[in-house]
Amino acid sequence: MIRHAVAEGLVILRERAAVSLVLAFSLAVPVALAGVGVALHQWLDPIAGMAGEKSSVAVLLHPQMESGERRRWIADRASENPEWKISEVSNSDVIGRLQRWFPYLEDLIDTGDSTLPPLIEIQTDDPDSVAVLDGREEVLAVGPRSSIQQTLGQVAGRLATVVGVLSGVLLASALLLAAVWVHLELYRHADEIAIMRLVGATEGTIRGPFLVAVVIPGTVAGLLAIVGSMMLVASFSRLTSSLGLSEVTISTPVLVLQGAVCVLLPLIAAGVTLARHSRGAAES
């Protein structure tokens, strides 16, 4: 029975070789894009997690504040705002930041002719609450209160949602394509199936060639989807690396799932359609 199914399935494929290859490619495209979408979703997840992180606001204090006075001032602000987490940036870190951000100040800093104001950082869920420090005589400046991390996290979260929905739509389109593909093939061979039933052929004998005829193109579609998704992910990875971001990778389970989907979707569609044809023939 298996030998007969393979032989007859290859005959069906030879008759419709070009169409089967086109349909296999059409099935591979949405599955490959869905796999890339999953890879992008996994890459965006850590960035999206930054949306819940606390914001850090830099506050520059007056350079004439003594260390004891500065510590008391920090303790008072912490007691007034228990939701704040206040930390003092060391003088060496301030110098390192200035040298990194403003290289032209390096000579001035090295000579020791500059008096650096103390810098503190306030971590809070509500960065706008730090605005109360504006205008105080002991405060020189309050840094930006918009959190780049939170903004990036929110954008990444929305993008991950869009990518996830798009991947689901692509998989649904792949399932619909497989169902239409199998239905058209069975409709084209409806007369042959009717004759086989009239001569007493078993359902296994009838269904075998059609199952083989969809498994082989499905396997080809799976290989195309895996290769295509790997190439697309490699392109995205080169782009993100050039921007100084982490590489985009696609995991082996996702690649295996892509191949399985390309084979199983047409196979399931064929099984369901053949069962419906069988019930229709039995009722008639």
Can you walk me through this structure?
- This protein is an alpha+beta fold and 284 residues long.
- The chain has a 4-stranded antiparallel sheet.
- It contains 9 helices and 4 strands.
- It has 2 domains: 179 residues, no CATH class; 93 residues, 2-Layer Sandwich (Alpha-Beta Plaits), CATH 3.30.70.
- Helices cover 70% and strands 8% of the residues.
- Helix 2 packs antiparallel against helix 6, helix 2 packs across helix 8 and helix 2 crosses helix 9.
- The longest helix has 41 residues.
In a few lines, what is going on in this structure?
This protein has 284 residues and is of the alpha+beta class.
Keyphrases for this structure?
single chain, 284 residues, alpha+beta, Alpha-Beta Plaits, 2 domains, four-stranded antiparallel β-sheet, 9 helices, rod-shaped
Outline the secondary-structure elements.
Elements lengths: L1 H14 L1 H32 L6 E7 L5 H14 L4 E5 L1 H11 L4 H6 L7 E6 L14 E4 L5 H41 L1 H9 L4 H40 L9 H32 L1
Antiparallel strand pairs: 1-3, 1-4, 2-3
How are the strands of the biggest sheet laid out side by side?
A: 2-3-1-4
- Termini Cα gap: 27 Å
Shape: rod-shaped
Give the DSSP E fraction (strand runs of 2 or more residues). Answer: 5-15%
Helix content: over 70%
Succession of helices and strands: HHEHEHHEEHHHH
Topology, number of strands: 4
By oligomeric state, this entry counts as single chain
Structural class determined from secondary elements: alpha+beta
- Biggest β-sheet description: 4 strands, antiparallel
